Amino acid sequence: MTAPTGRAPTERADAARNRLRILDAARRRLAADGFAELSLDAVAKDAGVGVGTVYRRFRSKAGLVYSLIEDNEARFQEEFARHCADDAPSAHDRLRAFLHGLAELVEDNRELLLLAEASVPAGRYHSAPFRRHHEQIVGMLTELAPGVDAAYVADLLLMAFTPGLFDFQRTERGWDVARIKGGLDTVLAGLAETGGPARDAGGTDGAGGGSEG
């Protein structure tokens, strides 16, 4: 039921502003001190809100980390939507921009994503961002290369952004993000070239024709 006064909308606006202030403060703290030193009390002080406000909204450091990931995902989606609105890019250009944007998203949030992966190893595959990314990639692949198994290939592409693998490539292999993007471009080019008529599991084409013998 709608409140009889204008107080509720004002409270919602204040809550939204507080949330942004808390997340901004948490980002600064993480950048300066890392997760191990992250304190909800310190974040509350930096954000200029009561510590009870932080605990009620996020409950724990893990809750704050997941909220940061969700907020960064929202920003990524907004940027991708703006890209798609400019000059009606092709499916190839949209998918390339999407994959490059994901690489930058993982790079910018590597520590957060590694923390999330460590706490729930398989949780990524059940998360809303993963399902959303998979659906978006499937849509673009279906347009770009209708002959491929879009759902399976989407899983393969998303494996490139597994936090542990991405971090291994950046730290142990010493690859920069440009090299990772270049590898994704190579895969994408191959998909565009080979995405012919769809084939069923038995290797016949969509028209049901048998193999030549």
UniProtKB/TrEMBL annotation:
Residues 16-76 form the HTH tetR-type domain. Keywords: DNA-binding, Transcription, Transcription regulation. Residues 194-213 are annotated as: Disordered. Coiled coil: none annotated. GO terms for molecular function: DNA-binding transcription factor activity; transcription cis-regulatory region binding. It comes from the Bacteria. Transmembrane segments: none annotated. Residues 39-58 bind DNA. InterPro entries: DNA-bd_HTH_TetR-type_CS, Homeodomain-like_sf, HTH-type_TetR-like_transc_reg, HTH_TetR, Tet_transcr_reg_TetR-rel_C_sf. Residues 203-213 have a biased composition (Gly residues). This is Transcriptional regulator, TetR family. It comes from Streptomyces venezuelae (strain ATCC 10712 / CBS 650.69 / DSM 40230 / JCM 4526 / NBRC 13096 / PD 04745).
